[in-house]
Amino acid sequence: MGLLVVGSVAFDSITTPYGRAEEVLGGSAVYFAVAASYLTRVRLVAVVGEDFGDEPMQLLRARQIDVSGLEVRPGRTFRWAGEYSEDLNERRTLRTELNVFESFRPKLRRQDVNVEHLFLGNIDPDLQRRVLTEAKPGLSACDTMNFWIERKSDSLKRLLASVDGLLINDSEARLLAGELNTVAAARRLLSLGLRFLVIKRGEYGAALFSEGRYFAVPAYPVMRPVDPTGAGDSFAGGFMGHLARRGMHDGRTLREAMLYGSVLASFCVEDFSLRRLAAVTARAIEERFEELRDFLSLDDPPRRRAP
Amino acid sequence: MGLLVVGSVAFDSITTPYGRAEEVLGGSAVYFAVAASYLTRVRLVAVVGEDFGDEPMQLLRARQIDVSGLEVRPGRTFRWAGEYSEDLNERRTLRTELNVFESFRPKLRRQDVNVEHLFLGNIDPDLQRRVLTEAKPGLSACDTMNFWIERKSDSLKRLLASVDGLLINDSEARLLAGELNTVAAARRLLSLGLRFLVIKRGEYGAALFSEGRYFAVPAYPVMRPVDPTGAGDSFAGGFMGHLARRGMHDGRTLREAMLYGSVLASFCVEDFSLRRLAAVTARAIEERFEELRDFLSLDDPPRRRAP
């Protein structure tokens, strides 16, 4: 039931049409770990600076996340600043300070080897491959981004030949595959050796391509999204968290995992940073899961509450 | 189970990354009518110029579309020319010549009154309202576009208070509702008096909002889309065609109609103009419907063909 995530921890400064947040906890591994923590036990391998402080550490511990692999190094924690467009669909990076993240070399301990489930967050694909080789997980998946696709495409493709699954944005999937069409891109990426491919489409949800089958889940319809930062990582956390909880990755479990991904992402966008995501309940998650399942059904849903 | 459509007939000149088509049959009412013709009997009320010619008329008649309401007026048929971006998601209008469409005043005959199903394609909302008042249909739906939202918002909102359904693009839904978020926009539009609202999302499919329920259908995954012109109109044709065929518009029928919309749109984009859409078979449509239904299912689909 173990789920290990390797990725970034950051302090973000974010401006959206709904407000601003300065120096708030973020980073792909944090969103992933908090989302997954509702479904399974999570271990975090990442690096922070001496300025990280107690408060964010408390938040992670309160979610029962194992932070013993969170390395504290001399220097400052990774900083990112960004600004979103009016409809939240586009974002502009205002500032990136890698700080201690620049020289991050994930260190696996003995207990991290043969982990059951591994998620390789968006870091240098050379490092992702090294971790994958060392960890020998039961099931593995990864994310990546434009920066690595443009600079380390070969390393990335070697990674895809050995990892089980890839979760990636649609524009990045097309870039990586060298295809203009998402469906053609999916087919090409699967041919590199993936068992499953999840294409994340922001407010439009996500699509799963696996073993010749296609499955699409809509985004849970949120009335007042506030900040989309971390939504894709929260999706990945919900997705992998469910696979780890079930200890299976057959077709049905993968499809259920898509719904959990969508549910966790929906909580993420309802407030800045982890404010909403770290404060939901298992019951609220299951309720949205049931709602999403009903949204996919052609049948009239059973009435779940008294009229 | 009659379905009447009022809208535009045009000759389009289209450039996409996959080729060009010059002066080919198009227009919202044509795509709608051809798509719907696989599911029900369709009557077309529209205007063309003296240059319309026999060939397009033969195409419509071959699809059993009643063209007795297609008015031929002195002058030239509506022309539109456009060009699509590399990923087909953006288009630029190069030329619009309204010609006889500029002074189009839909004329209903006696047999068009009390029609069972009416679709008001994208024309001046003043005209849409007049047709709706005259036709007194059993069930009605309409489309619109930025041009009318910006110029005749009040007329449009009066239309929405009397029509049953609206099928509209997501950016137009937000513009019409004055909301940045699609879900909030949907809620506002429904409050104007609609029974159902379909938000079309291009390659991401479409969402249905009706009686407090949400339903999303993905686009049928097309490997080689060639030309998206008319996809939204074909969706509407498949959607309304299924409602007309069933003679019902309960929740389940509306959701099935979403799948037929997605199926007909998928055929539309596979070639320029009506080349593919006018040449499919009822069986191919039902096969894609079954596939889409399986794509929505959490369960493993039954094996439909021998292994």
Structural class of chain A: alpha/beta
End-to-end distance of chain A: 39 Å
Radius of gyration of chain A: 18 Å
What is the overall number of helices of chain A?
Answer: 10
* Main β-sheet, spatial strand arrangement of chain A: 5-4-1-8-9-10-11-12-13
Please tell me the overall pLDDT of chain A.
95
Strand count, sense and barrel status of the largest sheet of chain A are: 9 strands, mixed
Indicate the proportion of strand residues of chain A.
15-25%
Helix content of chain A: 25-40%
Unreliable segments of 5+ consecutive residues of chain A: none
- Series of secondary-structure elements of chain A, N-terminal to C-terminal: EEEHEHEEEEHEHHEHHEEEHHH
**Largest protein-protein interface:** A-B, 40 and 40 residues
Commentary on this structure:
2 copies of one chain form a homodimer. Chain A has about 300 residues and is an alpha/beta fold. Chain A is about 35% helix and about 25% strand. Chain A is built from 10 helices and 13 strands. In chain A, helix 1 (about 30-35) packs across helix 8 and helix 9 (about 250-270) packs across helix 10. The longest helix of chain A has 18 residues, at about 250-270. Chain A is globular and about 55 Å long. The model of chain A has no long low-confidence stretch (mean pLDDT about 95). The interface of A and B includes residues 88, 225, 294, 295 and 296 of A.
